[in-house]
Amino acid sequence: MDKIIGMGNALVDVLATLNDDHLLKEMDLPKGSMTLIDENKLQIINECFSQMETQLATGGSAGNAIRGLACLGAGTGFIGKVSNDTYGKFYRESLLERGTEANLLVSTELPSGVASTFISPDGERTFGTYLGAAATLKAEELSREMFKGYTYLFIEGYLVQDHDMILRAIELAKEAGLQVCLDMASYNIVEQDHEFFSLLINKYVDIVFANEEEAKAFTGKEPQEALGIIAKMCSIAIVKMGAKGSLIRKGTEEVHVDAVVVDRVIDTTGAGDYFAAGFLYGLTCGHSLEKCGKTGSILSGNIIRVIGAEMPAEWWEDIKTKISEL
């Protein structure tokens, strides 16, 4: 089976459930937002968390996708940067526990990246994100050896802010014979760096994952038309439309895949990442575009039933059964 290596911000999610939203106001974190914070703010939050019950989980967009792939049994690796602290060790151990090869570089200057996650009583999630060591990965730290033995490189769009680093990664991956998959990550990032996204997709990227907001930010068009535009630039284009399913196009072949209907959406965090995991797993198995899309829908339909981007271990056997029955 083909192997996939992910590259992204190595973040540890620290999740705390709130009784009310008073703490959010105290921390000056707008409810439902993702706010980048500095080390001082992180220390203040950590002091609060030390008096609360918290859960740890590996996070970051590419990290979530690689976790989903590993849980399905795919051969996986991950490139990122952490510190040699408690969170960095947790991230490394979590990857290794699932059989993922951990290409984790170590920062001696900054602590590991942390997404402090506040879960309100209504299920809304608010993030205070400290990138720390995750954001210090540099082009010169990458080597061709990291990419050898893999068929696909999956990159999260959050990395495009460092043009030199992402270009170096893609060039090394191409030299090693990999196909490059890009998840656009966020519509505001696409808007801010539109020209660079265009360069990447036209020149290097083989597979593009975008939700409808990201696709519109990139093309100015609604999903159907956006899909056609993106598909002319790369090998496979995927536009995710939430409850309306997804559109997939490769050359002249186009598929619409329905979303999996769920009784109650608990939390949509990680839905796009898990869709990508399912789709890429299908590709590694040699499945049709439709089956790849349906596999993605099964994973995304399950992850929105839990808080956080990690499913109970016992769910995976049922998920694998559903995939085998497609």
Automatic annotation (TrEMBL):
<dbReference type="InterPro" id="IPR011611">
    <property type="entry name" value="PfkB_dom"/>
</dbReference>
<comment type="similarity">
    <text>Belongs to the carbohydrate kinase PfkB family.</text>
</comment>
<dbReference type="InterPro" id="IPR029056">
    <property type="entry name" value="Ribokinase-like"/>
</dbReference>
<protein>
    <recommendedName>
        <fullName>Carbohydrate kinase PfkB domain-containing protein</fullName>
    </recommendedName>
</protein>
<dbReference type="InterPro" id="IPR052700">
    <property type="entry name" value="Carb_kinase_PfkB-like"/>
</dbReference>
<dbReference type="GO" id="GO:0016301">
    <property type="term" value="F:kinase activity"/>
</dbReference>
<dbReference type="Pfam" id="PF00294">
    <property type="entry name" value="PfkB"/>
</dbReference>
<dbReference type="InterPro" id="IPR002173">
    <property type="entry name" value="Carboh/pur_kinase_PfkB_CS"/>
</dbReference>
<feature type="domain" description="Carbohydrate kinase PfkB">
    <location>
        <begin position="52"/>
        <end position="312"/>
    </location>
</feature>
<keyword id="KW-0418">Kinase</keyword>
<keyword id="KW-0808">Transferase</keyword>
